[in-house]
């Protein structure tokens, strides 16, 4: 099993350090703490990081923010292309103090894409340093969430969540999943709200979005993705996708 430490080439961010890498499936990032902040964004695939024992996940339109001092580790099951921005500690004072999932703005993605295209790792010129400070402003202003797709070890709902992750297209209703778990639909709903912070069907919709992003990136057609995810028609899948992302699957690919 391959290992990558994600160090900043033996240097500290000054004031930021940018890295874009493609990591093959099975790459492991062992636990570490850093005195700087870390902004993680998957260009392709879905990023997963465990921070202080909690699992964070982000599809391409969301990033994971790790403030200074928080232990974090990662293992990507599938190949991903990944951006990491290391932020000097003095710039993190008014950035989010807790780990969080951040919604990415078009401006943020454009600057990161520009740095990647020009192979900018340490911004040296005055113009690039100004762009780097815009990244810090965007991290500060980004809509944030505790988790995009929270998970739980709760013995009642954990087997259901795992089954759905294995097969996001499973169309069983909440009442059928309750029977599967040997409980009532009301109890299932209560556990989901307590453990996940959202209703069961909202969680399942987020899972389908994450799964759909991976399918579309792998070249599946909209029709095939809709079928794999349990939608009766492609139009129903497109409506969900547009509601969750603000664009259609075709627009996402074109963008």
Question: Could you list some keywords that capture this structure?
Answer:
single chain, 255 residues, alpha+beta, Jelly Rolls, Arc Repressor Mutant, subunit A, 2 domains, 6-stranded antiparallel β-sheet, 4-stranded antiparallel β-sheet, 9 helices, 39% helix, 22% strand, globular, disordered N terminus
What features would you describe in this structure?
α4 (174-180) crosses α5 and α7 (222-228) packs across α8 (234-245). The chain starts with 15 loop residues before the first strand and ends with a helix. The protein is globular and about 60 Å long. The protein is built from 9 helices and 10 strands. A hairpin with a 2-residue loop joins β4 and β5 (54-58). With 255 residues, it is α+β, with helices and mostly antiparallel strands. It folds into 2 domains: 16-145, Jelly Rolls, CATH 2.60.120.280; 158-254, Orthogonal Bundle (Arc Repressor Mutant, subunit A). The model is unreliable at 1-6 (pLDDT under 50). It has helices at residues 106-117, 126-141, 158-166, 174-180, 185-196, 200-217, 222-228, 234-245, 249-254; strands at residues 16-23, 27-32, 37-44, 47-51, 54-58, 62-66, 72-76, 80-87, 100-103, 144-145. The strands form 2 sheets. A 6-stranded antiparallel sheet has the order 1-8-3-6-9-10, with helices on one face. Strands 2-7-4-5 form a 4-stranded antiparallel sheet, with no helix packed on it. The longest helix is centred in the C-terminal third of the chain and has 18 residues, at 200-217.
């Amino acid at each position: 099993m391959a290992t990558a430490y994600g160090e900043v080439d033996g240097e500290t961010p000054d004031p930021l350090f940018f890295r874009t890498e493609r990591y093959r499936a099975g790459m492991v990032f062992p636990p570490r703490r850093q005195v700087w902040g870390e902004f993680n964004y998957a260009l392709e695939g879905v990023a997963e990081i465990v921070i202080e024992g909690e699992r964070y996940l982000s599809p391409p339109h969301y990033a994971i923010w790790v403030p200074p001092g928080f232990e974090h580790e990662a293992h990507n099951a599938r190949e991903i292309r990944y951006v990491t921005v290391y932020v000097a500690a003095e710039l993190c004072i008014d950035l989010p103090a807790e780990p969080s999932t951040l919604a990415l703005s078009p401006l943020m993605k454009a600057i990161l894409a520009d740095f990647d295209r020009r192979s900018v790792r340490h911004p040296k010129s005055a113009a690039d340093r100004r762009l780097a400070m815009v990244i810090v402003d965007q991290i500060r202003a980004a809509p944030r969430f505790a988790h995009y797709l929270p998970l739980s070890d709760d013995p009642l709902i954990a087997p259901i969540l795992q089954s759905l992750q294995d097969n996001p297209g499973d169309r069983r209703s909440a009442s059928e999943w309750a029977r599967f778990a040997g409980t009532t639909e009301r109890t299932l709903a209560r556990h989901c709200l307590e453990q996940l912070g959202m209703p069961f069907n909202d969680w399942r919709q987020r899972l389908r979005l994450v799964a759909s992003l991976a399918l579309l990136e792998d070249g599946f057609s909209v029709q095939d993705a809709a079928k794999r995810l349990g939608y009766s028609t492609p139009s129903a899948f497109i409506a969900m996708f547009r509601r969750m992302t603000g664009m259609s699957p075709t627009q996402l690919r074109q963008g």
